[in-house]
Design goal:
Elements: H1 2-20, H2 26-62, H3 64-75
Helix pairs in contact: 2-3
């Protein structure tokens, strides 16, 4: 009877070790759970960025003046026979 009890205690000890300490135990579970939460946050951010870009693409496809506005403001383009003047403010001498 004592031998059976010892065997069961050894088996219980091994299973507890596996559960709490080993690579596939509870620590690994919580680590993976945390990584999943972080990835879900990143996925949400990327989804929002994709949605904004999709809206911008649709706007550019539907409104031709939006293309011109984008070209002028973001790319610095000008029309043919148009003169572009850039005014650079001077820095005042500070004492």
């Amino acid at each position: 009877m004592k031998a059976l009890t010892m065997i069961l205690l050894v088996i219980l000890g091994i299973t507890q070790y596996t559960l709490w300490v080993s690579h596939s135990g509870v620590r690994e579970y919580f680590s993976l759970k945390h990584q999943i939460e972080l990835q879900q946050q990143k996925n949400l951010e990327y989804s929002l960025k994709n949605e904004a870009l999709s809206t911008e693409v649709q706007h550019l496809q539907q409104d031709k003046s939006a293309i011109e506005s984008h070209a002028r403001s973001d790319l610095g383009m000008i029309k043919q026979d148009e003169t572009f003047y850039q005014v650079i403010p001077s820095k005042a001498n500070k004492i």
